[in-house]
Structures are given as C-alpha cells and as structure tokens.
Write a structure and sequence with these properties.
The chain is α/β, with parallel strands linked by helices and 290 residues long. It is built from ten helices and six strands; from the N terminus they run ααβαββαβαβαβαααα. Strands 2-3-1-4-5-6 form a six-stranded mixed sheet, sandwiched between helices. The protein is elongated and about 65 Å long.
Length: 290
C-alpha cells in the first residue's frame, strides 16, 4: 500500500517492534481490502434506466442488458476499471415481463443476492404498476434484507413527473410543484413496499439530479472496509465531502483493527500507534486521487 511503510517507521520510533511476519500479514489484509471489487446489483424492469444510471454514477459508458429476450437469462457482469480500481456491476433480468420465466428468475435472484454488496432496485418514475416488483421483493429479496443486505429503491427519470415542464433545465432540478409530486411518489413507493422512506431515493440519471445523495447513502450502508473501494470509482462530481470523509474514516478504522489491535503491546502504546496511523491517513497518502 502506498507509503504505509511510514506507519511501521513511526511505530518503530515509539519502541513498537513489528516482525516481518506480522508486517506481511498486515499488508496482505490491507491489499485484499484495497483490491476488493465491490459487486453492485441492478434490479429493475426494462426501460427503468439502469444503463443511464450506471453511466451517470460512474462516468463510464456501460451496456447493461435491457432486452431479456435477446440475451442469456443469467446475470451480466460488467467490470469497470477506474484509476486502477475496479467495480463489478451486475445486471439482473427484470421480473414480470414473461410469467413462464418468473420462477427461474426467482431462483436466480436467491442465488445471486448473497454475493452482492448492495442492491439498487431501479423503478421508473412515471410507472404506476409495481405489482411484479413487489411480489419478488417480498418473496425473494426481503429475507436477505432481514440479514442486513443493503438495498435502495431508486426512482429514476423523476424529471418526467408532472408537471414535467417545470423542470429547471439550467439548474437540473425540479420546480416547486414538481418536487412536491416527487416527494409524494417517494412516500408512495415506501408505503407500497413497506420500506423506509430514507431508502427510497428519487433521481434523474439523465439530468444528474440527486446522484450525490444516492452515493452518500450507498457509502453509509456498506461495511467500513468496502466504502473506500466504492467511493474510489464513483464519478468525482457525485462524491460529496461527507462520502469522502466517511469512506476514509471507515477504512482507517479497519486499518486500526488489522494493524494495531492484534499487536501484543500495552494499551498506551496501542493508542499512540493508532494516533500515528490517523495522522498518516490525514496526510492524504492514498493510492487514489479525489
């Protein structure tokens, strides 16, 4: 890891000796965390705007599968390499389009969900029929949420919510009446799925509206050692100061767990070593650029 030899140097100055074996074990855990490829699952019907959302979030042209009839029924994985960091986007076939395949899709969802770090279930803002989504959510997905799987319902294309002529093209934001209707849609989706309203996020991928909030929520939901790899590949304009700080602090806490806590040294020395690590982190010595 970039310049983390400085950590061992600082610890040495404090009289803390770290064996070569321990250094190797520590750097191995750090490398594993930094090289981890987050797997983001995109659920949603054809036309909900999964591809446009991916493009807007990560600043890359991706080709998620929208035409189920023209592709394999297996999920498609797309690997994005950004600044030497990777992320896997997993596109899952939409439900409710062909009844004869829904059972097959249910089995697919059940097998895939444990492998995903977070699920973004994309809904179309002007769609009023969520029955098939709701059926799969309750019968297939919800049991995994009860085990802590992060999921967000994304109301995409909210610039199309009436009165759509109110949309501020220059500011890329809704007008006064339109935002009230967007909030009503958010409340409706939350009530329909029986899900917290804070986890239902209205966005417009095409207008790049509210993407920063979406990134904030995903970073907050991920385990601390996985926050940083997600934040590292997000389009910079979608990464808020809050997300940067939370992802970095989460990773520093993880580093403390794997570097300092296992050392057989007195508590006062551990506290000094933890302070040194946080100081190094604040120097901005990281293998990515924000």
């Amino acid at each position: 890891m970039n310049d983390f030899g400085k950590l061992f140097d600082e610890m040495g100055k404090m009289g803390i000796t770290v064996s070569d074996e321990m250094k190797s074990r520590i750097t191995g855990k750090i490398d594993n965390a930094l090289n981890y490829e987050p797997r983001i699952g995109f659920f949603g019907k054809t036309g909900a705007g999964k591809s446009s959302l991916c493009n807007a979030l990560f600043g890359k042209d991706v080709c998620l599968v929208d035409d189920v009839a023209a592709c394999t029924r297996n999920p498609q994985e797309i690997f994005l390499n950004v600044n030497s960091k990777g992320i896997k986007l997993v596109d899952v076939p939409g439900v409710g389009e062909r009844a004869d395949r829904d059972k097959e899709y249910a089995d697919l969802y059940r097998s895939l969900l444990p492998e995903l770090d977070v699920v973004l279930w994309v809904l179309k803002a002007d769609d009023r029929a969520f029955t098939s989504d709701e059926l799969f959510y309750r019968n297939v997905v919800k049991p995994h949420l009860d085990q802590g799987k992060p999921l967000f319902f994304i109301i995409n294309q909210c610039d199309k919510i009436e009165p759509f002529r109110e949309w501020n093209l220059t500011g890329r934001e809704p007008g006064k009446t339109q935002i009230l209707n967007i909030l009503k849609k958010q409340q409706y989706v939350a009530e329909f799925f029986g899900y917290p309203e804070s986890k239902v996020i209205p966005v417009s991928a095409g207008e790049k509206y509210n993407l920063t909030r979406l990134v904030d929520e995903v970073v907050h939901a991920l385990p601390r050692e996985k926050k940083i790899t997600f934040a590292a590949v997000v389009e910079k304009e979608n990464l808020s100061p809050r997300a940067k700080e939370e992802s970095r602090n989460g990773f520093v806490d993880f580093l403390i767990d794997v570097t300092i806590d296992p050392l057989p040294i007195p508590a006062p020395l551990k506290n000094m070593a933890k302070a040194a690590l946080r100081s190094i982190a604040n120097w901005g010595v990281w293998p990515w650029n924000w």
